[in-house]
Amino acid sequence: MTELVIVVSTGKGTWAEAAKIISAGEWEKIFIITNDFGRENFSKKENMELIVVNANDELPVLIEKIRKGMSGKISGTDVAFNMVSGSGKEHMAVLSALLKLGVGIRLVSYVNDSLKEI
Question: Is residue 55 within 8 Å of 35, Cβ to Cβ?
C-alpha cells in the first residue's frame, strides 16, 4: 500500500478535495502537512499524522520540519502527493523534503469523481 502526502492549508474549497482524496484511496499512512488552523479543524483519522508548519518560516526551516516529520515513517519507495491546497512555498518545502528522503513521487488528484494519478 502507498502512503499519501497531502497539503491541507489555504485555498477556498481545497479541504473538500483533500477529504475526497483521503477517502478515495487505500492508504497505508497519510501525512498531512498543515498549519495551526488545520491542526485544530481538520478531522484526523487513525492512520494520519499531522505535520504542522508555519508558512512564514524560512524555506529551509519548513523543509527540515517536514523531512523530520516523515523521516523513518515512510515504508515504501514512493508516495502519492497532492498539493491542491496550500501555498507554493509549502509545496516547494514538501517536494524538497520528499526528494531529500529519497522517495519517488506520484502526483494524485480527485477528477471526475475518482482518484487519478496525474
Answer: yes
DSSP label at residue 35: -
What's the farthest any 2 CA atoms get from each other in the chain?
Answer: 37
- C-alpha 92/C-alpha 87 separation (Å) is 9
User: Where does residue 85 rank: exposed (0-12), middle (13-18), buried (19+ CB within 10 A)?
Assistant: buried
Rg of the chain in Å (alpha carbons): 13
Quote the pLDDT of residue 6. 96
Structural domains for the chain: 2-117 (3.40.50.10770)
Residue 28 has pLDDT above 90, yes or no: yes
pLDDT digits (tens, 9 = 90+) for 74-85: 998 999 999 999
Task: Decide: helix, strand or coil at residue 28.
Answer: strand
- Cell numbers for 53, please give them: 508548519
